[in-house]
Structures are given as C-alpha cells and as structure tokens.
Amino acid sequence: MYLFTPKSMPTAITVTHKQLQFHFTIYGASHFTMPPNQREIQRQLMKKYNIIFDGPIDSITSPQWPGNCNTIFDHIRRLGRTDYSEYRESISADFTRFPWRHQVQQRAKRITKIAKRCLESRKNESGWRLALESEVMARFSVEIACRNCRGRLWRSEQEVDPTTQTAEEDDPNSLRARQRRRQSCTCKPNGFSRDIPEQGISPLFDDRAEEAIIYSSELRAELPKREHRPDRVFGLQVTERLSRLLNYAEDIRSSPFRLDGDPLVFPFLVIEAKSEKGSDAFTYTQVQTAFAIRELLSIQQELAHVANENEEWDGGPLVWFLSYKGEQWRVFAAYIHTTPDKISYRVVRLWSGGVDSLDGALQLLLIIDYIADWARDIYREGIARSLQRLAPTDSESLRRDDDIFSMAGNIRSWIASNFDRSHDAKDRPMGDSLCKFDCGSGVFRDARFVESQCIGLVITHHNVESFLRTATTDKETRGLISVLLESLERPCLAKGQVLNDLELMWTDTDRNLSEILHPEDVFYVVVVATFYLSPGWKPTRELTYLAVSKKLVQDSIRSPAGPLSSTIQLEKAPMVEDLESFRGLLHMSAEDNLNACLYNFCLRTDKPTRARRSEVNYVWKTLPTVASDDADRELQDRVLRACARPSTRNFVRKLHSIYKIGRNEPDVSFLRVSSTMDQLASP
Questions:
Q1: pLDDT in tens, 464-474
Q2: Less Cβ crowding at N or C end of the chain, within 10 Å?
C-alpha cells in the first residue's frame, strides 16, 4: 500500500492496530516512483516479452525494421540536423511560399525561453509538462486548412514520402498528386502581420493524460504494477468516417483504455517526462513505458493480421516514443520484428537534444511536425484502408472525410485506388468505367464487364479437424456433418488435377505448389454455376464446388473414432474425366450473359434422370466419364442440369460468409477463393 507526502524520498513505517501490523511505504506526492526491486522485475519481464531498446540509430549495424521505415527514419535524422541560423535566413526569401516558417521560428524561440525559465526556477515534472508540452505538440491540436480558401496554413518542412502508395502517377487522388496541388492560404486579414490565424482545433487527433492502459489478465498477473499511466498518449479521434468504419470492426480492439466518453483509437505516440532535478535516469522512463509501447504496437498488429496486411503496411505497426528529462529530449520509434520463432518489440533512438538551445528547439519542432504529417497522411489513412476492408461494401461514405476541411474535396479517395491495385490476386487492366458515375439516383453498368468468382470448399485429411472446429459444440458438429452430407447429394468423382484446372479455367488463377491439390487424389464433388447481379449491379458468374476426399470418407467409415465416423456409405459415383463442359458458360455473349444474370440461371452436376417435381427439368450437357463395368447408366453418367435452389451452393456460401471479414477473403485451408474481371464480346 502507498501513501503520498510532500517529501520525495521513500520512508518505511509500521502501524499497529488491534495487534495487527500494517506496513506502508511513503513516496513523494509529485510523482509515483517504482521501487528498485519492482524496476528490476519489470526489466526481467521486458526480456521475457522481447521488448528491446536498441540505442541510437547510428550505432545499429544490422537494421531489422521494415523497409518502409527507412525513408521515415532518414527524414527524421535529416530534420534533426537542421541549423537554426540557416533556417532563419530562408524565411524572408520564401515567405510567400512558406508563410508558416516564420511561425515555426517564433515557436522555437519561445520554447527555448520557456526551457531556460524552467531551469532557473528548478521546476518539478508537472511544471515542465505544463510549460512545454502544449508548445511542442501544438501541431496535433490545430486545424491546418483555412476555412475560407481551404489553402494550407501549415506544411511539414519535410513532407512524408508517398512512395509506399501504389497509386498510378496520373491518379489525381494519390497522395503525391494531392501534395503537388497543395497551396498556401491566400487570405490576408492583416497585410502587416506574418502571424497565421488559427482555424480551430484539429478533428483528427486527440490525447489522454495519465490514463491507465488495460493489459491482458495474464500480463497483469506478472507485472509488479498492474497498470501503467503514461504521461500522455496521442491517437486518432473518431470522426464520422472512422465511426462508420469501426461499426464494421466491433470485434477488433482499437483502444488500450477503458471506454469512458469519446474513445481514443489506434494510439501511435507516447510521452514520458521527468524533472531535470530528479535522480531517475532516461533508462528508467524506458522501463516505465516499455509495456505501454508494446500494447500500442499489438493493437496495430491485430488490425494488420485481420486485414491481411503485409510488412509494408502504411498503418504500422509503428509507435513513436518521446522521452524528456527537463530540457533534454529524446525521440524514439518502436516497431515489431518477427522471426519464425519469436516476435520482438524493438525501440530505436532517432534523435536527442536540448530545447534550451535554438538548434535543439527547432529540430524537435520540425520532427514533431513531420510525425504529425505522417500520422495524418500515412498512418491514419492506412488504418482507415484496413478498416475499410472489413466493411461488406465499399461505399463513398467510407472513403472520405467530408466533415474535415483539410481532408474534404477529393473526387475519389486515393485509398480506394490503392486498395484495388494492391490487393487483387492479379492486375486488373479493365473495369466498367460507368461505375464512376454511381449516385444515389441510380447506376449505369456496361454488360460487357463481368466478374467471375470461384469458391471451393475442399475437405481432406489435412484440414478436416480445422473444418470441424467451425462448430463449437458436439451438437453443432453433428449438424455440420449432416448438412455436409446433404450437400454432397448425387456427386461425381474427380481428381485433384481436374479441380485445379477448373479454377484456372474460370478465374485464370494458377495457385502455387503449396496450395494446389494433389493431381491424383480423388474427391467426391458437386459443382454449381450461378449467374446473378451483385448488390452493386455487377453481372456476376460464380462457380461454387464442394469436394470431399474419397480416402477421408473411406477411412472415417472404417474407423468409429474418425472425424466423419457418423457418415453413411456415399452412393456410388462415376469418375468424370474433366469438367471442361463449364467452359461453354464463359463463351456466352454479353447479351446472353446478362439474360442469365437477370434470370438467376443456375446449373449443377447431377444425375441424368428426370428432375424432381420442384426442380427445373433441363439438361445442358453430359459430362465425359471414365468407362465402368456397372450396367446401370444412371450410375455411369453425370450431366449439367438446371436447378433452382442448390443446397450445395448455400452450404459453401454459408461457410464462406462465416470466415470472411468484410471484404477480406477467408484465410483457412479448406476454402479456396479467387475472382477476376472479364470483358465479354459485344452482342
């Protein structure tokens, strides 16, 4: 138990009450100090959880950070070498182009004066924080666009490099194009003043001061102090657009704090301060903040995992750490380094300096300006793009921040173009240009552009246990197997090579060796082809198939403990030589394809006998089968028959919807999903 007194040195006392002794440790009220033994425990936990402070960046000979951090770190180091005198001389010559430089210079002078005053006054930690932090971090709190002309009131001395964005050079909504179009504010309320008028607070960022970070129960059980309260944490404010996106990601953790009021989501910057007259070294602030940094990185990493981001993701994981003791400041960047056997949370020091000098104050301001620019144009949009993938549709309201002056006005979001180009299975050189005219009153579509989709549910010895884990109880498992058998009604047999060729034919997707089915493995198969108009009015032809390993079924029947032991003997099914008959559906004209979509035309592999009364009696083609000694033609033949309500497709689509998150396709071994955009011949 802890009591707080005005003294800064700890004092141990014992209180006796009714023959019970209570032991207290008293610490100064100015700030909580972790006892030395607890500090050592936390250092050991840092080693256990692979939280590593690597020291200055120029001392690192084998960098392990992601490649997209190279340019960011280089920019920080370049800004950290800025000379105040040279910067001041550039102001007069470039004032009309860079009017904000005068303001930055004045802020640097003001910070230097404040730092010297704090030193002379021997202020404690709270005094330093109240005097300096609002000045240094001002760029995160003010709007940067003029409300009258929407010109820029401020731009970073070194703007973030948009090379990580894969938008085309001629894309007017790419970050590079938007940077080229940015103009300074042209409003001049006072021609004799160089001061830039404030335009209100920034709606993009927010912060929390000394608020407890919530760790997992396992970590809390190990930490000597169950909660950490960083001096300050900056993150994203929930705008209207982010609110809509977060509605589709309710299961994704976005904040490390208790929900109380408007949330601070996906925090990216931590500040920890100490008084210059205190005895604690800089290394103590690292120990104190290590697990808070890890928690923020983990939140970003969880989103990256769900959204299937690669290591070049713009959303991170990247966390900034500002540590200062009096006038001495340090700037760190934290990232995740992953190897096959462990995950490490590494922190590298990019800059250090004293804000009691003009050079140091200016360098720190320029670095903070750069981080704000990164958070605005790279990090925030990377987070939004990942959340956008979790949404079921790609509506215009999810792409734009129309309620924010400095973000409004783009015709189409550069995020959407990046998403389309970066995450398709292959390049799409074509598309329906009429989509850009979509509006609330209606849409136009070119019938020549058709989306071809292939969704396969393939169950083998290797993935059957994973498939059965879709159910959570024994009762649900029995129900899952029952529906599986019903969906395998009237199957044919096909080899793995036939299924590989089928997907290649339908979507032109050639899987790598680790993903293709073994050519000689035999499967019970039902294939369904369906034509329809998507919710976005796109003509769509979808191929859905269910394939269950014949060997798996046979082994399960022989073994009472097998995963499919409750199955009955599947009826005899003929072996088909190929499924090339489906190719004819791909050669229809645009007019015929549109008619098929309007009528929801559907075909499935089936027996040649007359259909049930409730089904359509139309046979399109007969499939080539391997010769058999069985005299029963019904068992030897399989056809493509029209059907109205294919239970097989419903089952496969149901599994697909369970594992699909927004527009992010499932990442499970038993589902094979691919798609492409095709252009058909004109009628």
A1: 999 999 998 88
A2: N
